[in-house]
Each structure stands twice: as C-alpha cells, then as structure tokens.
Amino acid sequence: MLGLKRTNSCGELMSNFAGQEVVLCGWVSRRRDHGGLIFVDLRDRSGIVQVVFSPEVAQDAFLKAETVRNEYVLTVRGVVKLRDSDTINPNMPTGEVEVNGLEIRILNAAKTPPFYIQDDIDVDETLRLKYRYLDLRRPEMQRNIILRHRATKLMRDYFDSNNFLEVETPILIKSTPEGARDYLVPSRVHPGKFFALPQSPQIYKQILMVAGIERYFQIARCFRDEDLRADRQPEFTQLDIEMSFVDQEDIMKMMEKMLAYLFKEANGIEISAPFIRMTYDDAMNKYGSDKPDLRFGMELMDISEAVRGSEFKVFESVLKAGGRVKAIKVPNYSHIPRKELDGLVEYVGSFGGKGLAWMCYTPDGIKSQITKFFSEEIVGKITAMTEAGEGDLLLLMADKPAVVNPVLGQLRLEMARRLDMIDPDKLCFLWVVDFPMFEYDEEEKRWVAMHHMFTAPRDEDIQYLEQDPGRVLAKAYDVILNGTELGGGSLRIYQRDLQEKVFNAIGFSVEEATEKFGYLLEAFEYGTPPHGGIALGIDRLIMLMAGRPSLRDVIAFPKTQSATDLMAQAPGTVAPRQLKDLHVKLDVLAKK
RNA sequence: GGCCCCGUGGUGUAGUGGUCUAACAUGCCGCCCUGUCACGGCGGAGAUCGACGGUUCAAAUCCGUUCGGGGUCGCCA
Predict the structure, then answer these.
(1) Which residue's CA shows the smallest distance to C1' of B69?
(2) CB of A319 within 8 A of CB of A303?
C-alpha cells in the first residue's frame, strides 16, 4: 500500500467533495461490468459509494477492475465527481456523486460468500452464525453493532457525569445457592474445587457499598446455564448499578433519566418520565403478568360477582374453592370462526388453562356455549360489567388466581398479536413495584426469594417474616418496556440480624449461610450504608432499540438455542492432559 | 425434559408415492456489451433431496430413529 493512504470513507462522499482526489478502502459490494465501463460499489463501515472504471480514464485500473469479484478488498484512488442529473441514484446516500477510478490495488481476493452481504436477506440462521464475519459485514448488522457501542458509551457518560465509578468485579467467583444453574470452572490448584461464573455481580457490588464506593456501575458480563430463548442467551450483559444512601425513588429516577437520555441521544426519541408505577398485584390482576405490555388495552376483568349463582357448574365450583372468573374483551372480533375458538382452547391448555368459554356479541345476539346456564340477569350483569357491545368477543376463564391470571394474560397477548393491536412504534415503560418477598416452591416445599435473598422487606412487613412469609412485600422494582423485563432491582438488607431472618424464612441455616457468604455477613458488621441498586439487560435493551426480534441480532457472536457457537464450534473436547490437570474425570464416552 | 415448525444445486423456494434422468429464481463460470446501480443479452457448470433404518414392484414424497436450526412450556432468584 506504499503511497496510497486512505483519505476518506465511502459513506461520507457527498456533492461537496466534488473535484477532490480521494483514496478509499473497502470491500466490493457489487460489480457491474458493461464491457467498456465497469461500476464497482465499494463498501466500508460508513456506507457504499460507486466507483467507475473506464479505459479512457485509466487503462490499468480498468483491466484490474475486470478481475475483481464480490467481497474483494480494495484500495482505490480516484476523483469524486458529480453525476449527471440523469444518472443520480436517489436510493443511496452517496448517489449524487461517484468516484472516477484512477488506480486500484487489490489487497485481497475473496471466495464467493455463501449468502448476500446485504440487508433483508432470507437465509437460514445457521449459515449466518457459521459465517458470522460475513453476516456482521451486512449494513443492518453493522448498524446494530454501532448502536450498541453508542448506547453503552452514552451509559458510561451518563453515570460518569452522575458521579458513579465503574468497577470491575471478578469473573471467577464462588458458586452461590439459589437462582439459575451456574457455569462452573474447575480449579487446577485446588483439586475438587470449582469456581462459578457470575450470574450477576450482586454480592460484590454490595460489598463495594460497604467499601465506600457509594455509586457503582459496571457493564458486566453475566452467565446462566439455563435453556435459551429469543430473548435469553447463556452469557449476556448487564448494566449493573448500586448506590448508597438512597431510597427506591432515587434509584428509579436515576434510571428513568438515564433511559430518557439514552433514547434521545441514540434514537432521537423523547420518552416521558416518570414512568407509570404499578403494583405487582395490579399487574397480575389486570394484565396477568409481572411485565405487562401496555401498548394496548384489553385488560383482564374480574366478573366473578356477575356470574356468581349461575347454573354453570364449572364456574360455581371454582368460585366455591376461592377461585375467580375473569374475562378479556376482544374488540370487533365477535365473528371469530368456530375453528379458531377451538384453537384458543388448545392454546390456553398449553399454558395450563383447563378450559375457555366465549361470548360472541354478534348482530344476531350473543353466541356462546355457556349462556344457556345463565339467567338473563347474569348475562346482563356480565354485559354491563365488561361494557361489551355488538361486535365484541368475550373470552372467559375460571380458575384460581395463580392460573387464571397468567393464562388469560398470555391469551391477551396472543389475541393482540393476531388482531394486530400492537403499535410497533410505541414505547411503553413502567415500573412494577411491591413485589412479594417470597414465592412458594412446590417442588422443594419451601419459600424461596422472588428477587434474591439480599432484598429488603418493606419495614411494615418485617413482623410477618416468621409467621406469614407469603404476606411480606419487598422493596423491589422491575422496569418494563413493551412487555419485556428490562431489568430489576431492590433496596438491600444492610443489617445482619434482618439478613439472618430472611435466610431463616427460606430455610437457610446460619451455618449454611455462613459457609456460603459469611464474608458478606461479616462485612455488614463493619459499617454498611443503606444501599440498593438495579441491573438492566443491555442485550434486551439494544434489541428493543434496534427493533429486532432476537437478541442474536445485537450480539456479535451469539450462541444457538442449544448453547453452541456455530462459528468457533464451541464447546469442544479437550485433551486428556487438560482434564488430568484439573482433576476432572468424565462419565461420558467420547464420540467416535 | 415436553410440544410445535423447518432441513431439496452456493442461496431461497417448488415438487407430498411412478411421467423426477428433480423445476424455478438468484448466485457462480465463460462470451458479448461505455451509464449501470437487484445492469442487460447469450451459453454453461452445479443437488444421489440433513443422516441412518424401514414400508413398497417403486420413496425427495409414507413410517421410525437420529443430527442440526428456530419458536415455546418447564427452567431462567
């Protein structure tokens, strides 16, 4: 490349560069060979510009351009010129100019890629993941990577200017009980012992508060060895925050401002703060979810009192057992085909719903399989209570709240998707607050912490910790965007005796607690400030900002659903010697 | 661990028991072409239909197993 130093990027060449000689570097996005004239679309990170090679302008460059193929890596020297008005391409940002190629250096040839390096391709994701370096060359993926960079930069700027310190915490830590399955790393030095990879930096950030850091943040990699989803990867990134001398509102305000700043600077979108605050109870009762999507209505309605005393045995027995009868009103869908209704019964079944009733308010009256069990009065009460009118469809379910709420909540989302009721451009943030401290684990027959075991109970509920743990609410809060949990946090326990009470409530003995995190309990005795924090899932946040349906589109090198890296072929086998060093013996037979 | 969807030239699809010696588009290769921008024209190469087993006179097509990918329930404090 002697004497040819890159002077400009492809995407920046606009009409004001006309007449300038430039040296560009990039990849051949496309070549159009007209025999006596060759067009090369040259692409770099900034964009694409058209380079023209003509034998009259530069014979050598023209001959070399004939040999060039897609994805060849070039340095091109040429002169920017305005295009004739009839050859302007309004579809590309640089379409008013082109570069008259004077000289080409082929820095590297390239094999024909297995898929097009362009947006909106329709290829199996397996291929994209295997050739991730080609996938990432596509402009839309580059935009995602750039957005992610900008977003994390803005976060760092924001927290820096609010007097936070970014502190790194260890990746090799001690396995702690509860929560997700740990990724484990065997210790060579300590035979039979293991490190765990952090599910979050929880304990370290609390200890940083004891250490007087006061305001901590970290863009932290976290690991959870659980099954994957479109919005769940086994390793993911959290924006982790912890603050001393604050209450719940302080933390929520700090995050609201950060999110408003982020969306404004990165996406140019104004979002209104403060966000709605909704109690966990309200969220479950009205939306059947602790992460409600508020972009549309169709709330769950409790019609137990309207149907009480009917001839319909299913409803009556549920009500007698303390359950509820609830409904959602699907607007303008009373003409739903019978076949789809049957499908919905099956749909709720997949979530544990035992049945589904319907009332179609058609122009010819109410069509329903259950109104024959209802008096006119009851039908009237239902209609009044739900404000159902002609054209509406009521979907009804009866069960205990722990079933009817989540299942109807799922149905609410499904109906909204089917009827296209969700505005994809809307951003609905909210806080869900007043979470229960514990939930009962049927398998283990004990209470477990809903958020985590360092979460502080509300002061007024501490009295119930021993007798009635189910009644205790926590100083915990989740931030939700469009039905996705962006993150959650809590105020923490900072007194040893209260922490021990909570351990007690979840059946955690003092000995066990001491063995697992005695260091934290001990730290609490050396002057711990009141503190609390929150963590946001950065991958999910970027996914929503980029409007992508999958986390994999905003992670440079994501894993497949079976937690493998198709490009690097990880995980892989290791040499027997490595296992020996680690004192690890396998109980699986190596595949032939 | 359960349920659902997908797997056919490089890529995306069609073909759902025989007429498939597998079609179409695009990409690739060659020739032609001086204003294209998804350039165009002509010609050519390229697939034992994910793998294995079974049913059948006959399988891309039906059945079973398995592998890979995706979605989801469980799981994910």
Answers:
(1) A126
(2) no
ipTM: 0.93
* Closest CA relative to residue A319, chosen from A337, A329, A304: A304
CB A373 within 7 Å, strand B:
no
Is pTM beyond 0.90? Reply is: yes
pLDDT per position as a tens digit, A150-183: 999 999 999 999 999 999 999 999 998 888 999 9
Is A298:A378 a contact under the CB 8 Å cutoff? Answer: no
Contacts of A372 (CB under 8 A, 6+ apart): none
Give the helix/strand (H/E) hosting A258: helix A248-262
**Chain A window 7-36, residues with Cβ within 7 A of nucleic strand B:** 30, 32-36
Cβ atoms A299, A326 nearer than 8 A = no
Nearest residue to A135 (alpha-carbon basis) of A123, A147, A146, A148: A123
> In whole angstroms, how large is the CA radius of gyration of chain A?
30
What gap in Å lies between CA A72 and CA A387, rounded to an integer? 65
**Does at least one atom of strand B sit less than 7 Å from the CB of A120?**
no
As a whole number, mean pLDDT of residues A432-454 equals 89
A123 touches strand B (CB under 7 A): yes
